[in-house]
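Appendix B. Raw example, untouched.
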Amino acid sequence: MTSLPLRAAALAVALPASLAIVLATSSARAAPTAPPAAQAASAPTSAYRDLTWIQLVPPGWDPMKRFRDVGIGRLSDNSPRTAALMADLRDELDNAPLVESLQDAPVRLPGYVVPLQTDRDGVREFLLVPYFGACIHMPPPPANQIILVKLAQPSKQLRSMDTVWASGVMRLDRQPSDMGVSGYRLDAANVEPYRNKPR
């Protein structure tokens, strides 16, 4: 678990407010707030491989590479050029590359719930995101930081921004939704409350 990287934090100082928000949220890797050791200890025991959010990002991927020399710091929020850059950056994030070796892997990881499909039986599908407020109070993170979770059984217990452990079989499956573009999907997923202490 890490907070906003120094590179992103330094760039955000010079960005117009709207671009700074997108960069900050797309660069965040903050899973539920517990030390890494506590995260591992609190995971439910199973045959699933534990993942961290950074493991969903291919090594060397840099979403800001295309935008380094465009003079972002000199743009205002209401500039047409800023709007065009925002659209280009959103496209870059929505088409973020995925880690192909995760296809068909049984995995689990902690994150925050963004409900998508709910009926009288409860939540059936949700987005799992790495930091609080993603896709709801802040712009969506990159697609390689959003997982579409399809539950094995609907849950009446899940609420927006609950912290959970989600486990299931990972698929590479880019899907748009009203809340953001997910790059991965967990099938037949089970969800348990996130705990900071071993069970």
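End of appendix B.
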